[in-house]
Every structure is written in structure tokens, then in C-alpha cells.
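As the work plan foresaw, our protein records have gained a C-alpha cell line. A representative record is set out beneath this paragraph:
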Amino acid sequence: MASQKALNPPPGECRQCWLHAYDSRAVHAHLGPREDCPECVSHMGGKCPPNMIVPGKRRWF
């Protein structure tokens, strides 16, 4: 089960990237050794679809 932090990305972050970063063991369990995650590769370099970005202003603390 995903952690609470993995399910609640802050404003301005991609929901999928956040989940894959904070719950990576469960999300990537189906991959073999040294196998790239196709979902992660498709989002590399900031290519996240706008509909997956949490609305709101990004903040620096």
C-alpha cells in the first residue's frame, strides 16, 4: 500500500512522478533487475502531461 506522502504530492508536482519516487518499491516490483520503468522514462526531462500536475503555486521553503 502506498504511503500517505506518496499519495499527496505538493502543488506543482506530477502525481505519477511523485508516486514513483516515494513508493518506488511497490510501483516497480514488476520490473526485472536493471530494467527501466516505461512510465518513468516517458516523464524524464520534465515531459509530464499538464493534467497530471497538481494545481497550485509551487513554494520554496
